[in-house]
Each structure stands twice: as structure tokens, then as C-alpha cells.
């Protein structure tokens, strides 16, 4: 009897021990259940790579969704002294090319219209440019009232010379703080005012000096030389506008060389016109050279250099 009671107690104790072991095992199984959802929304995550790796090591469950840490965004304060400007070099280049095409086409159209309308006067001007006697004959015909066609041809010289100076300024990258249209208009107006002022001054001096006829003849000679020079400059403008860098550079020097040649040729023709007064009126001749020829060039050079 006593032995049976002892066996029953041992059996009960063994059963209790087994149940305790099973309970402990079930609790561990619940803690490591791979289908459990972790309360990740309530967990504070830091924005660093080391803490992200630590979270992955702590959670061995392959079904856990680990949110990768976000990189810290550093905000750089804006410097008020720095201005952000949109690149406008391409648009400026396109507008510049468009304006150059416009003035070149305008020059070609003027040449076509004027030469078609006044071809005979252009032929006479060319013959007068080559021969002094024909020049004097043209001067007498001009006195008879045939001046209007020469004025149209002379305006073509104004326009082509302004285009030449504009293209030289563009090629040499001379910044005058003006837009393309403003610079072209200023050059054209400046040339017109300068040359017409010289012709007006010739007419005024003709009333005060004894060689008024020679002054008027020289004024007309200057007009004829300008007309021919306007046609010579036109192809140089084409080379400046659409030639290569080396060709445009050479055309610049060639153009200024042509202008100097025409000026010297015109001065030689003027000396031939008034040679009989050159010795007897040396003072008046020097006064003319300083006031009419040299002073306007120096004034224009001063104005241009002041804008650089």
C-alpha cells in the first residue's frame, strides 16, 4: 500500500514536470513565431546606416519588413549675393545672326534697287572716279539740277559703311553697351551727320574764301568717291559676316586699307583741283586740313574710345 502511494506520487511529480516543460516550450515558440507582426509603427528609427544594420540584426525573422533609414538632407542656406541667371548666350547668338542677316539682305536689296533705277548715273560716277576731266564734266551737269540720283547712290555708301563698322565691332568683340539695332542706327546716323556736315561746311566756306568754285568741285568729288567706295565695301561686308575667323580678320584690315586708299586718292584729286591756290593761300589750306579733315576724325575717335 505504501509502495503504491509512493509510485503514484512519483508519477504525479513526473507529469507535473513534463507539463511545466511543455508550457515553457510553448511560451518560447510564441515568442519566436515567424508570423507575428512587430509594432514597427511605434518604433522610433534614426536616420543612420549603423542603426539600420542593428535593427536587422535584432530581428531575425525573414518576413519582417525593415524600413531602410533615410539619408539626412542638409539644407544649404542661400547666399543673397549670388544671382542665378538663365543662360542667354544661345539666344543672344541667334538674335545676333538674325540681325546680321537682316542688314546684309537690306544692303543687297538697296544695291539691286538703286543700281537698277540709276544705272547710267552709276556708270558716270565710275568714269569720273577714274578720270578727273570726266569728274569736272559731271560737276557741271550736277549744277544743272541732276543731283537726286547721286544722293540715292550716296546714301547707299552711308548704309554700307555703317554695316562695315558694325561688323568690325562684332568681329573684334567691342562692347559698346548698346543693342545691335541701337549700334547700327547710331553708326548710320553718325556717318550721315558727319559727312553731310562736311558738305555743308564746304558750301559755307565757299562764301568766305576766293576759291568757292574749287570747294564745290571738291565737295562733289568727295560724293563720287563715296559712291564708288560704297559698292567696294559691300562684298567685304559679306566676308565679314559669313567668312571664317581668319578670312574675317583679313577682310577687316583689307577694308580699312581700301578706305585709306580712297581717302588719299580723294585728297590727291583735291590737291589737283586747287593746286593754283595751294602756294598763295598756304594758311587757308592748313586751316582747312585741321578743321575739316583732321578734327572730325579725332572727335569721332574720342567718342568711340570713350564708350569702350
Provide a descriptive summary of the structure in words:
By secondary structure, the protein is mainly α. It contains eleven helices and no strands. The protein has helices spanning 2-31, 49-58, 89-117, 119-130, 132-143, 148-171, 180-205, 212-242, 245-273, 275-278, 282-306. Helix 6 (148-171) crosses helix 7. The longest helix is centred in the last third of the chain and has 31 residues, at 212-242. The chain is elongated, with a radius of gyration of 48 Å.
Give the oligomeric state.
Answer: single chain
The first-to-last residue Cα distance is 131 Å
Main sheet record: none
Q: What does the radius of gyration come to? A: 48 Å
Shape descriptor: elongated
Helix and strand succession? HHHHHHHHHHH
- Please state roughly what percent of the residues sit in beta strands, choosing from under 5%, 5-15%, 15-25%, 25-35%, 35-45% or over 45%: under 5%
The helical percent reads: over 70%
Low-pLDDT stretches are 38-48
Q: Count of DSSP E strands?
A: 0
What key attributes describe this structure?
about 0% strand, about 75% helix, mainly alpha, about 300 residues, elongated, 11 helices, single chain
Write the layout of secondary structure elements.
Elements (H helix, E strand, L loop, with lengths): L1 H30 L17 H10 L30 H29 L1 H12 L1 H12 L4 H24 L8 H26 L6 H31 L2 H29 L1 H4 L3 H25 L2
Helix pairs in contact: 3-6, 3-8, 4-5, 4-8, 5-8, 6-7, 6-8, 7-8, 8-9
In short:
It is built from eleven helices and no strands. With 308 residues, it is mainly alpha-helical.
